[in-house]
Each structure stands twice: as structure tokens, then as C-alpha cells.
Amino acid sequence: xxxxVLAIDDSxxxxxxxxxxxxxxxxxxxIASDGLDGVERFAEVAPDVVITDINMPRMDGFGVIAxxxxxxxxxxxxxxxxxxxxxxALKARARAAGATGWLVKPFEQQLLITTLRRVTGRLTxxxxxx
Length: 130
Fold this sequence. Notes:
Rossmann fold, 5 strands
């Protein structure tokens, strides 16, 4: 069963790049265009991992993290921030909200794929965690 990824970003270019990179590795990728859209799709998709931008309209990434973490059973789903921002204060705020990790745009495809596999326990393509 493919790894299900929910990618949330207001940039069409980034959404397209993420979808292409993830689907090219055999992942199932659902995209959302802003934070509110992402939180709604989270409930529909039940992803294995979430990738979210921080700076977005309607709901920023911190709101996304808080909304997901406040749901029942959502404390274990890894949430990765993918942002052009890289400040330690923002990273600390994201960790405090419940983020699992932080990657910087523009992303390196192999680092993204490796990170997704590591945080989900799917170290090899198609593997299911025990």
C-alpha cells in the first residue's frame, strides 16, 4: 500500500513539484491549496504524513499543525514543515505546536523522500511499518 501524503501549500508551483516528486516515488499524494483546505482534506484522506507550508492565506501552517494535533488520534501522524523560512524561533514554535520536522524550500527531492520514509518508518519503498 503506498504511503499517503497530504501536501499543503498555497504555491501552485510547489504543489506541482511535490506531487510530481512524490508520485514519481510511488507515494499517493493529495494536495491542498491553503491551511483550511488542508485541514478539511486531512479528515477525508487520513494521510500517513503531512507536509505543510507556514505562510499561507486563510490558515497558516501553525494553525494547520494545531488543528491536526487537536483531533482524536492525530498525535502520531508526522507533520513536516516545508518553508522558505529557516529561523530558529519559527522552528521552535512549529515543534511546540507539534511539528515533527522542518525542510527548507527549494527542497531537494531525495532528502524529502528519505525524510518521509524515516518519519513514517517506511524505510524501503512499499514497506509497511510493523
